[in-house]
């Protein structure tokens, strides 16, 4: 379980072999890997669930998802291309806490406990930076070839955003169905507590990995 937690941005052995051995421009493979990462990235999906949990208008959903994508894309590209070396355990712990933050906000915790309401849009953008940085730190472990690095990273990033749209579509279908049932009002509170618990578990795994390293 610790190993699974430590690699929240994990890459399969076959994909790892490709990343370490590829030289030159490989637009489509990197596009596919980016989309695959987002669709299977449970930390990203949990955060997105929290972001859209109480959003009903597509205009609002589009705005928040765009802010997340902007943050995610910026640090993914800059982190890899500039060689930012940041402890992966700490970054992934913050990503876990981003899920906690979002669920706590959905529950009205900031107003109830602290009497303030942080800017929701700014929070999504800022946590988007950390989500992108988390993947950037993982990609740097694979000694990517400098030959074709820029176009490959652009392709990977485009794939991530395509994967995000696919994942978002599936989440929206499930959420719209749930909202149409009587159980949504009864279980929305429990749903956000479940999100918060998942975030604490992910963050706990990462802090444990950092301390035992």
Automatic annotation (TrEMBL):
TM stretches of this protein: 37-55, 62-80, 86-104, 124-142, 154-177, 189-211
The alphabetical list of record keywords is: Membrane, Transmembrane, Transmembrane helix
Is Hydrolase one of the keywords UniProt gives this record? Answer: no
Q: What is this protein called?
A: HupE/UreJ family protein
The organism named in the record is Massilia glaciei
Q: Taxonomic classification, please?
A: Bacteria, Pseudomonadati, Pseudomonadota, Betaproteobacteria, Burkholderiales
């Amino acid at each position: 379980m610790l190993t699974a937690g430590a690699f929240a941005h994990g890459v399969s052995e076959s994909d790892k072999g490709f990343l370490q051995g590829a030289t030159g421009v490989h637009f489509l493979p990197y596009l596919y890997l980016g989309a695959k990462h987002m669709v299977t990235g449970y930390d990203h999906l949990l955060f997105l669930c929290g972001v859209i949990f109480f959003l009903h208008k597509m205009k609002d959903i589009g705005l928040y998802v765009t802010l997340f994508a902007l943050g995610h894309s910026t640090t993914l590209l800059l982190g890899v291309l500039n060689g930012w070396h940041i402890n992966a355990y700490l970054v992934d712990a913050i990503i876990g806490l981003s899920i906690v933050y979002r669920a706590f906000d959905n529950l009205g915790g900031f107003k109830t406990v602290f009497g303030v309401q942080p800017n929701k849009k700014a929070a999504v953008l800022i946590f988007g930076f950390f989500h992108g940085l988390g993947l950037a730190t993982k990609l740097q472990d694979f000694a990517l070839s400098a030959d074709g690095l820029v176009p490959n990273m652009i392709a990977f990033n485009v794939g991530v955003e395509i994967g995000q749209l696919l994942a978002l579509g599936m989440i929206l279908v499930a959420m719209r169905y749930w909202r149409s049932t009587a159980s949504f009002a009864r279980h929305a509170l429990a749903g956000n507590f479940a999100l918060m618990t998942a975030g604490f578990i992910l963050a706990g795994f990462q802090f444990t990995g950092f301390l035992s390293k």
